[in-house]
Amino acid sequence: MTPEQMQLVKASFSTIYRRKRQAGTLLYSRLFAMAPQVRPMFGEDIAPQVEMLVTMVTAILRAADDEEKLRGLLRPLALRHAAYGAVPAHYNAVGIAFLGTLDDILGDRLTPEMRAAWGAAYAEVAQRMIALSSEAAPANL
């Protein structure tokens, strides 16, 4: 990501944060419709997951300039996702659901540049999560 893209992401996050429950509910509804196979990975009540998602995105944005801190945030999450059976295709579905949710929440305020910035941010986090989750795979002896 470029510094300009990071600024766009951070600047638009406050709007998303103010509508976090709506955004989270919409994201998970969209995700479960697109990829019903991931639904069993979540509890019946999605509200706690929405809160965890917003908390994690907030923490990731705050740590974006500190590689060690960012890895410290992402590693346990990636390992937990791996334990639940998450695979790269799941991250792709989440990315599509996430960008669609941004379209709905931000509407006309979501410029093409801002959408590209969020797409780049998500792609970077997803790639790191996939790489870190491979640490959970048993070593071939």
UniProtKB/TrEMBL annotation:
Family matches, as Gene3D superfamilies: Globins
Transmembrane region(s): none
Residues in Globin domain copies: 1-134
Domain of life: Bacteria
UniProt record similarity statement: Belongs to the globin family.
Protein name: Hemin receptor
Organism in which the protein naturally occurs: Mesobaculum littorinae
GO MF assignments: FAD binding; heme binding; metal ion binding; nitric oxide dioxygenase NAD(P)H activity; oxygen binding; oxygen carrier activity
PANTHER family per UniProt: FLAVOHEMOPROTEIN (PTHR43396:SF3)
Keywords recorded for this protein, A-Z: Heme, Iron, Metal-binding, Oxygen transport, Receptor, Transport
Pfam families in the cross-refs: Globin
Single Gene Ontology BP annotation: nitric oxide catabolic process
Keyword Nucleotide-binding: no
SUPFAM superfamilies: Globin-like
Keyword Ribonucleoprotein: no
